[in-house]
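The following block was generated as part of the benchmark described in Methods. Ligand: magnesium ion.
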Amino acid sequence: MPKKTQIAEVVVSRNRLKKRIKELARKISRDYKGKELVLIGILKGSVVFLADLLREINIPVEIDFIQVSSYGASKTSFGVIKIKKDIDLPIVGKHVLLVEDIIDHGYTMHYLLKSLKVKKPKSIRVCALLDKPARREVPVPLAYKGFEVPDKFVVGYGLDLAEKLRNLPYIANLSPA
Ligand code: IMP
Ligand code: MG
């Protein structure tokens, strides 16, 4: 665990996360009532959000996971994103909601939407906990969004810094090294 001093400020507190996730789940439950819903979490960052969101959804729901190779911090084009772990459930004819921790440049979600549409779901939409619109390079339609965050690197609640800090129960940003 890095030193506590690395955490500069809490960006979204535990309480705000809890409250907002309840609101999102209520809306999702209403919108998908009577429909076959599959939540697909993007590994690994979405697991904490997905686990909390799932427990607040009060309609029948299935879950699955997908993982892509990250293209890192370089300016590499999204053409190089690859699926490392594909979904196991069939989604043909089902309503899919992709659950992501954060939409940054947008490449990852743009690629996933394109790849999963090939499997012929009845609908496919995106639910992102965080949106960092300042750095968007490709448009991503967000059906459900938790919070907008400024253009600073954030960690916690599933989001990592070199695989660490995912276990923080809130969203924080880091002080410069
Ligand atoms: P995009 O393709 O640029 O939208 O990248 C999305 C992915 O980059 C997310 O799924 C995160 O894993 C990662 N990412 C982007 N911004 C942050 C951040 O501020 N903290 C931690 N991970 C981030
Ligand atoms: Mg991610």
